[in-house]
């Protein structure tokens, strides 16, 4: 007889319910985990209430990624075993067409194949007591290494923000000794781009219009803050370009620029300033969520031989690299867990996550 579990089921905009539903079963190429901790992004409430109109096949169990313990493996799964502590990534790809991908339990994709994938077997996310993931999304964690570094399983939930940032860093080949612009720098994901860039040995020039936020961010990084050069932006393209360049070695410009602009940033000037502050052959990664068009200094991009690359989330290797860096002690987790809520307190948890957006705070569901 199938066992039941508690889960947060989204039936439509503004209709999130805690329900008893059947516990998932592990089929070929999949595992089931008991969810220990599932992070809440600060804008999840906007997806639930329909403000962000993401394609979703209702009803579905909401939620993206988690840290958990494997309870069941599929018949063809041999390396992953029950009892293992794992991090489960949220980008699910169609195995016979890997260019097609969805965000599990959160965004059902754009193409017919993606929407078919998200409306059938890979429909449900992890805001539940148990969740099913494809084996390629499951990363085994070295509990001994984490313990030696003083890292709890709950802290590994920060990977939710770190892995897309690692995807941005890897997509434009940032290496040790380079100087990277992160503008804006104090958001949930952009601050993780700073963490990822520092972990691979780069120096960061961090830009924001808020001096107070920049000062607090640099202080929060402790000794690593010495490799962060804060720049307060004014909104004037050329003044900001000059300030960003002045913060780079010898004032020669940055090697790379990572942009995590939010949706409302289309009319701002920092993207143009960031591109102008790159040295010749510089690289830029657009990893934010601006929907509208933005101005690009075409002649400068051409004359300076700049590369602009888009990066949606992360590849499997990006997640694996982030895990290895954490376990080796080369990447320091930076977000503070301010609350661990049971599923029953979902309204309070979503409200707190929305109010706590930014670089420092992390809110979790802890169903167990």
Overall number of strands: 18
| Overall outline | globular
The radius of gyration over CA amounts to: 21 Å
Unreliably modeled segments: none
Q: What is the N-to-C order of secondary-structure elements (H for helix, E for strand)?
A: EEEHEEEEEHEEHHEHEHEHEHEHEHEHE
- The CATH topology of the largest domain corresponds to Quinone Oxidoreductase, Chain A, domain 1
CATH architectural arrangement of the largest domain: Alpha-Beta Complex
> Helix count, per DSSP?
11
Could you describe the largest sheet, including whether it forms a barrel?
7 strands, mixed
Average the pLDDT over all residues and give the rounded result. Answer: 96
Q: Strand portion, in percent? A: 25-35%
In CATH, what is the class of the largest domain?
A: Alpha Beta
Helix content: 25-40%
Name the CATH homologous superfamily of the largest domain.
Medium-chain alcohol dehydrogenases, catalytic domain
Structural classification: alpha/beta
How far is it from the N-terminal to the C-terminal residue, by CA?
A: 22 Å
**Number of structural units classed as domains:** 2
